[in-house]
Design a protein that fits this description.
The protein has 15 helices and 21 strands. Strands 1, 2, 7, 8, 9, 10, 16 and 17 form an 8-stranded mixed β-sheet that branches. Strands 5-4-12-13-14-11-15 form a 7-stranded mixed β-sheet, covered by helices on one side.
Length: 544
Amino acid sequence: MAEIERESMEYDVVIVGAGPAGLSAAIRLKQLDADINVVVLEKGSEVGAHILSGAVLDPSGLDALLPDWRNMDAPINVPVTSDNFYMLGEAGQVRIPNFVMPPLMSNHGTYIVSMANVCRWMAEQAEGMGVEIFPGMACSDIVYGDNGEVKGVIAGVFGLEADGSYGENTEPGMELHGKYVFLSEGVRGSLSKQVIEKYDLAKGASPQKYGLGMKEIWEIDPAKHKEGTVTHTMGWPLGGNAGGGSFIYHLDNNQVYVGFVVHLNYENPHLFPYMEFQRFKHHPMIADLLEGGKRVAYGARAITEGGWQSLPKTAFPGGALLGCSAGMVNVPRIKGNHNAMLSGKAAAEAAFEAIGAGRSGDTLESYDTEVRTGAIAKDLKRVRNVKPLWSNYGLTASLVVGGADMWCNNIFGTSPLNLKHGKSDAEATGKAADFTPIDYPKPDGRLSFDRLTNVSFSATNHEESQPSHLKLKDASIPIDVNLPQYAEPAQRYCPAGVYEVVDNQFVINFQNCVHCKTCDIKDPSQNIVWTTPQGGDGPNYPNM
């Protein structure tokens, strides 16, 4: 095939992804130099369309970036007023007193927000400073320079033929070149995955670990609504089958975020994370809260959970990994947006200094140093042992030893433990024959819902004539390997019902995909590769 000709545009900095990390980088660059040329490319139909987070926002990142944000009409107006933590049994619950929790676990001074709306507001600030933001522009590939550095990205490819080839009606997209390229794609970004492998950025780090976060927005009875209340739970229904827990956040307008996280290192391939979430809502405490209310939105997203041990090198020739593209979530706090903002700010400062010195295309070592020695490092290092304790020794050890370890870090500023992660989440999957299938109750349509009904509440849409963005390295593996050995877990781990086995055929309903990336992470054969569909496709989250 003849080489595809594309137009190109030149910028000082090209940013992939309009999440909190990418937008923070764009804003900081313009703060430092109003004349610097910055472009942000977003695959969602609009900024915020693909943003899904809990979210209780630690404002430390925003304080560092925009100190006056409280006077800038930011959609951050529900301070946390009450903090609760429960251990659930099937029929009851026990509250863990706040005083036994390490101080870093407190949500004092934080806010319940829609990160989708926060990002929309951040985009307005960036555009007001002269940043160019192009939504609906999926970045499908990297452009490399003569010395092997990242030079830019290919964005805006539309109208591919069903087999993935270029036809007469295909728009080939553009090359956007930058002196530096920032990848802020979120968890398991497709371009980030490429550069981590190409430059061996994960050398010496533990395998990255992940969770699957599922979330519904509910409008509940005003008599039960307690604005500013934050509740977290552990225990039932997961028990010993998987790590994870829930979050319940009361925002304004009688709305509640109800979320459930399942750690993806679970062994039993019969586990059905989505159905665990639906079963959770039938716990008496949760059912009483939701009874008489209605679900108004649904979504799902993978979460980086490896923490400090799994952090790859964050700078590479020609660019940097920001936020969850590298993995900066503080797992016990279930917070990463503040670190994403801090990473964007730090990357911008490193690039500004480099461009001012006449450099381009080199490795921004000062950015990686800041990530590993500054506020992000301090936040991640003090909780570094909680996740490996949970993964290797279970919930009780995580609560007791992990809690003691966090107290030790709080009091002495350090801890004698430096635990590592072992297997990847894909490798952790056990053989189906070694585990008992789990019998899940049928959704009742009132508190619990089937997957396809819930997916309709994510406003997900993909142009059906395009090739599937979910690629199989080997089309025979799902039926010949995964089905006999693992009962083909893609049927269950996907929270959107994308994968089915029908008449001994593996069916991919890519139109349902909510871009959570779980399949790319959890497939035991590592046979599924998530790539970007054409720009604007996917979920359209209003208030996630």
